[in-house]
Design brief:
439 residues; two-stranded antiparallel ribbon; Uroporphyrinogen decarboxylase (URO-D) domain-containing protein; TIM Barrel; UROD/MetE-like_sf
Amino acid sequence: MRFDQCTNGNIFMHGWTKEQAVMSEHDKAILQELAKKMRSYAEKPEQEELMQLWRDHNDLKETRPLIYLDLENGWNELLPQEFTCECEGEMAQEWEMWLHKEIIYAEKVKCDKPIEAKFYIPYQAHDTKWGVDKKIIGDFYGGEAYTWESPITEDMMEDDFDVAGLIQIPQITIDWEATDAFTEIAHDVFDGILEVERRQWWWWGLELTHPYVDLRGFESMLMDFYDYPEKMHEILGRFTEGYLAKIDFLEQNKLFTANTGNCYVGSGGLGISGSLNPKAEVPTSAMDIWGFHESQETGEVSPEMFAEFVLPYQIKLAERFGLNYYGCCEGLDRRWEYVKQIPRLRRVSVSQWADIPKMSEMLGSDYVFCHKVSPTDIAVPEIDEDHIRTRLHQVLIDCKRCGNHVELIMKDNHTIANTPRNVYRWVEIAREEVAKVYG
């Protein structure tokens, strides 16, 4: 099977060309049978109960801890063992893969991800991004380790190069002919079974330090705080300008899609909300949706430098959104006094690099405690159930004591040791530990 083309809660990251937008009667029949099966799960009463649970959770009402699992690259080990692709067309195969994943969630994963009678399609779009590319060395698209050659050299920093001339404002163009073609096919296949809905990720997060590292290299970025502080501010300011222009463009052209429904948001978990665009309608502005901000690349940079160089630009971006999610892998306990300045901050990442008990005390009942459980727990052929239980139990004890609105998120799964049962068993164990601590 080719590398899985969906990501983060089954969101297609790209559309299909006009040439790929074809559907045979053979493939249509297969997809419709799968869609009917998916609908049968979506119509169960517990699905709406899960939607309400997430809604209350994100609105800071008292709930039990939620459990969410996103397999990411692990799908490439699980899927070949769980189903055989029967469709023949390239686009149809990707749709078949998507439907199977939803069914696997319902039948085998059984975490707190709701199943809805919807089929999501993207646009066929092109984003110019920053107009300057790094040279990748290694198999990036195969999910393997890689390195790159950064295009902005030391000489360019010394020579006071024209930042605005080199780093371009991102431009989005949509191939409407292709988009209309596969949208029409989706309606033909699924109408009467699943609701066809547009869902597009125009960015993963409003990243500032990630593109900086792409253009300068990681070691160079760390030195730039000292050697080229003015130039660093100029580059980060240019990225901020670019994102603000992109937000304006998406608002003006009504291209935002709601991430306030059954949608993966930030660096893990779902964005279902009753206080922010509760019906998950087409957003009229960024104030209707979640924003996401992080700076993993500066995890070992001092809190003071982070506050001086990164935070001011993140605040400018966060001001545009109705609610905000902050953080990914970086340990936020060391810079929390600054991060909490993000306006309308609601969801906060608590990673394995954070002091987890300290974060429990810091967040209290004022934020959603998005705990990233270690993916190494299920990345081995024989999982250590006692170890998993002990770690989960202690986190839950601390969270209950501090009144946290906690969710347990298993993600960043680059491998599951070709053992799908690891995935299913982890969810079972997490549920058992939640029951022990919360009743």
